[in-house]
Design goal:
Blueprint (H helix, E strand, L loop, with lengths): L1 E10 L2 E11 L4 E5 L6 H9 L6 E6 L2 E2 L5 H6 L2 E4 L11 H8 L5 H14 L1 H5 L10 H13 L5 E5 L7 H16 L3 E5 L3 H7 L2 E6 L2 E7 H6 L1 H7 L3
């Protein structure tokens, strides 16, 4: 479904991504793990068109999308739930959700809203509440729900567990599994490597802008290198 080939991204004279290549197959959960500054969020921004490529190509459903605008990518089902949630705090929960479906018809949004409410019942309960007054976990659910309102084929989740309590983290990862079961392919960027690998099919390790390890999630969970660097073992 998604294929990066020798992708390079520069910020001025700094090379943030160096010859990055990986694939995401339809129906998978694939995780990118790595430390702060490894280039994980830059990879997501490059895929969505928020950051211009300095080299390489990105393919989606066998089309070269390297030069596509972010809007065109959203129209074709590539949707990002960004790091830090980036909700609109003064808008209501419902208004935030509806903004996620801004490229879709009213009827389509109403249909998808029912699905989002089934996934996140708390968002239905709080639909009239200002988004900024939600708890951290509820705000993360809102951010993911807003992304789901665009009906993604490929959902990009950037650090969905960041700053959340352990019990809420467990709920978030359970919901990611549910989203995949609904037919959505997921590319996940996550520092909580253990939880991410437990729900993933495959994973890649990114260090200083370069893929240094790849394999099934089980293989990386058992890897001595991954255990020492990312699993605290």
């Amino acid at each position: 479904m998604l294929r990066l080939e020798h992708v390079v991204v520069n910020y001025g004279s700094i090379q943030a991504l160096r010859d990055v290549s990986f694939t995401v197959e339809e129906g998978e959960i694939v995780t990118l793990i790595g430390s702060n500054g490894a280039g994980k969020s830059t990879t997501m921004r490059a895929i969505t068109g928020l950051k211009e490529l300095s080299g390489g190509k990105i393919y989606y459903e066998d089309q070269d999308i390297s030069g596509w605008t972010t809007r065109k990518k959203v129209e074709h089902g590539i949707i990002l739930s960004p790091e830090g949630r980036q909700i609109f705090p003064r808008f209501s929960v419902l208004e935030n959700l509806k903004m996620g479906g801004y490229l879709r018809t009213k009827a389509q949004c109403e249909e998808t809203l029912q699905v989002v409410h089934e996934l996140f019942p708390i968002l239905k309960e709080r639909e009239g509440q200002a988004a900024g007054t939600l708890s951290g976990g509820e705000q993360q659910m809102l951010a993911v729900g807003r992304a789901m309102m665009g009906k993604p084929k490929l959902l990009l989740l950037d650090e969905p567990s960041l700053g959340l309590a352990p019990l809420i983290v467990k709920d978030i990862f359970h919901l990611i599994k549910q989203i995949r079961e609904m037919g959505t392919t997921v590319l996940l960027v996550e520092q909580n490597a253990r939880s991410a690998l437990k729900i993933s099919d495959r994973a890649y390790v990114l260090e200083t802008g370069k893929i240094v390890l790849a394999g099934t999630a089980g293989e990386l969970l058992r890897s001595d290198e991954v255990q020492k660097a990312y699993l605290g073992m």
